[in-house]
Write a structure and sequence with these properties.
The chain is α+β, with helices and mostly antiparallel strands. Keywords: Acyltransferase, Lipoyl, Repeat, Transferase.
Length: 665
């Protein structure tokens, strides 16, 4: 067993560089190349790796200390003494490597494996940024999570960052809450039961901080790469390109918030990019008019991809949405180039995140994280229609779920919410002063009419209606009805016969006795037969429901429909007497008219319209004979019922009404 003295490596001509993070403490076990601490100058950050594996002893550095090359850090107590020499040689070789040779990006700090297979989870590498607020906490103590499941969400003023689980396990000792500010290395929790996990905590994007010695060697280059400059036409136009988004390429455009010819203000959001773990808004570098827009939703972009030209952005000299390159370092103080900001960058130190700015068309950019955006896209939900319940109006996954449930329950108002509308979701009619043409009177719409109108409007907008018509020969039925009325003890109308026929037909064709499931992928078949009938009242249309119509005779149906109709006219129907219908009948036979198109009474899938019977000449094979024909109009939901099925249903109804003996079968 031997101790290896660890000191600050060659960091060029820099001295008194502050320590901004210490990622180990006395007694910690570390692997070779694990990050011990992070330094930060005014232009760059620098991770100091362990030259070998071992146990940290005699740690002499704390956050805030200022160090230079050779400053002691700690000792590594190692059982593998031979590891020191190769590690030191490798460090020296890296320091001597030419600047042109790129070094591999180091991994984020590895989670510390605790006894019993537990993993300490810390905030991964988030670049130069500190004090980034936690805006969502998606787990709590005791939760079981899978590897890569999101634990929490951080947010800067322009992007969001999800912190994934480095392994599967049970969350223990959760140390954070919403509103806490974190930096790289901040403890999150322990994942218990993650035995055998040696992978480092996943970083959302590759770390841009190179190894200490390699950065020092690379810093010897005297001239940095020049900053890209926008192509300006006469000092007035600015070419906008995708800014520096780290090592990411082919990042999809998920929202385009401007169009050709739009006027935008400086810093207004032009478009939104999204990786699998974060979102990034691309702001306008200056005010101007959008010309030559080259992107559309779904395009994949990288740093430097052309977006558009901002015309009239006079005096704009900054690069198009890209940060300016650092000035060339002087010979007296050669500094390493700062790491390029990754896609999660844009944190103002200590400043709370703010919601996105309105787009050029006045819409508020949806304020949501990557997981929420992905969830909404999978369901086909427009985030512009959702009001967020999270902090500062942030749209959460729960908001999307609630929106979808509302749409399924009341589709029409939700669909119409995106556009101005009049009462009951009807598009507004231009205001007209009718009094200029003569005398008028304004009368309030009856409450029943308001409710039924809204319901019918939703049904008409959201159900693909088809109406099929036929005539039923009720000559014998009508003769029987008149003859049997005296013996029945109750007035027999055509309605109870039709209800009975419908009940028999629903048994024969059960898809008419169903409802479409909310998921749109199943139908719910009902084993009961409750038939509603439209009752005309002074206050409007209501639909009482006759329960178990298939189990009742004609006289019983006649008595029940008469009682329900009287209650409807007197305004005494109970709510339960208008619920649970499987199929509806709208009869206009007592008024007149021919065929019409009844509207399906959702969530039912069919409705039968009955018009006034008329004597018509019918060919019996030898001659025309007078027959009493009853017009039938069958409307149905074409998502559930197809034309052939509906045709068979209405033909059966005609047969049942033309021959009463069939009702007894």
């Amino acid at each position: 067993m031997s101790n290896i003295k660890v000191t600050v490596p060659d960091i060029g001509n820099y001295t008194d560089v502050p320590v901004i993070e210490v990622l180990v403490s006395n007694g910690d076990q570390v692997e070779a190349e694990a990050v011990l601490l992070v330094l930060e100058s005014d232009k760059s950050t620098l991770e100091v790796p362990a030259p070998a594996g071992g146990t940290v002893r005699n740690l002499t550095i704390k956050v805030g200390d200022k160090v230079s090359q050779g400053t002691p850090i700690c000792e590594l107590e190692s059982t593998a003494a031979e590891a020191a020499a190769p590690a030191a040689a490798a460090s020296a070789a890296e320091a001597a490597a030419p600047a042109a040779k790129p070094e591999p990006t180091p991994a984020a700090p590895a989670p510390v494996a605790a006894a019993g297979g537990d993993v300490e989870v810390t905030i991964p590498d988030i670049g130069d940024y500190t004090d980034v607020p936690v805006i969502e906490l998606l787990v709590s103590d005791g939760d079981t999570v899978e590897k890569d499941a999101t634990l929490l969400v951080l947010e800067s003023d322009k992007s969001t960052l999800e912190v994934p689980a480095p392994a599967a396990g049970t969350v223990k000792g959760l140390k954070l809450k919403v509103g806490d500010k974190v930096s790289q290395g901040t403890p999150v929790c322990v994942l218990s039961g993650a035995a055998g996990t040696a992978a480092p905590a996943a970083s959302p994007v590759p770390s841009e901080a190179p190894k200490a010695a390699a950065v020092a060697a690379a810093a010897s280059a005297s001239t940095p790469a020049p900053a890209p400059a926008p192509a300006a036409a006469g000092g007035a136009d600015v070419e906008v390109t995708i800014p520096d988004i780290g090592n990411y390429t082919d990042v999809p455009v998920i929202e385009l918030l401007v169009g050709e010819g739009d006027m935008v203000e400086k810093d207004a959001t032009l478009l939104v990019l999204e990786s699998d773990k974060s979102t990034l808004e691309v702001p306008a570098p200056a005010s101007g008019t959008v010309k030559g827009l080259k992107l559309k939703v779904g395009d994949k972009v990288s740093q430097g991809t052309a977006v558009c030209t901002l015309v009239g952005a006079g005096g704009a000299s900054a690069p198009a949405a890209a940060p300016a390159a650092s000035a060339a370092p002087s010979s007296a103080a050669v500094a390493p180039q700062p790491p390029a900001p990754n896609i999660t960058a844009a944190v103002t130190d200590g400043a709370p995140p703010k919601p996105p700015q309105p787009a050029a068309d006045g819409k508020q950019v949806p304020y949501a994280g990557p997981a929420t955006r992905k969830f909404a896209r999978e369901l086909g939900v427009d985030l512009f229609q959702i009001k967020g319940s999270g902090a500062r109006g942030r749209v959460l996954i729960e908001d999307v779920q609630a929106f979808v449930k509302q749409r399924l329950a009341q589709p029409a108002p939700a669909a119409a919410a995106a556009a101005p509308s009049g009462g009951m979701g009807i598009p507004p009619i231009p205001a007209v002063d009718f009094s200029q043409f003569g005398e008028i009177e304004t009368k309030a719409l009856a409450r029943i009419r308001k409710l039924s109108a809204a319901h019918l409007h939703r049904a008409w907008l959201n159900i693909p209606h088809v109406t099929q018509t036929d005539d039923a020969d009720i000559t014998e039925l009508e003769a029987f009805r008149k003859a049997a009325t005296e013996d029945a003890g109750v007035k027999l109308t055509l309605l109870p016969f039709i209800i009975k026929a419908v009940a028999v037909a629903l048994k024969a064709y059960p898809e008419f006795n169903s409802s479409l499931a909310p998921d749109g992928e199943n139908i719910i078949l009902k084993k009961y037969v409750h038939v509603g009938f439209a009752a005309d009242t002074p206050n409007g249309l209501v639909v009482p429901v006759v329960r178990n119509a298939d189990q009742k005779g004609i006289v019983e149906l006649a008595r029940e429909t008469a009682e329900l109709a009287k209650k409807a006219r007197d305004g005494k129907l109970k709510p339960d007497e208008m619920k649970g219908g499987c199929f509806s009948i709208s009869s206009l036979g007592g008024i007149g008219g021919s065929h019409f198109t009844p509207i399906v009474n959702a969530p039912e899938v069919g409705i039968l319209g009955v018009s006034k019977s008329q004597m018509k000449p019918v060919w019996d094979g030898k001659q025309f004979v007078p027959r009493l024909m009853c017009p039938l109009s069958l409307s149905y939901d074409h998502r559930v019922i197809d034309g052939a099925y509906a045709a068979r249903f209405i033909v059966l109804l005609g047969k049942l009404l033309s021959d009463l003996r069939r009702l007894t079968l």
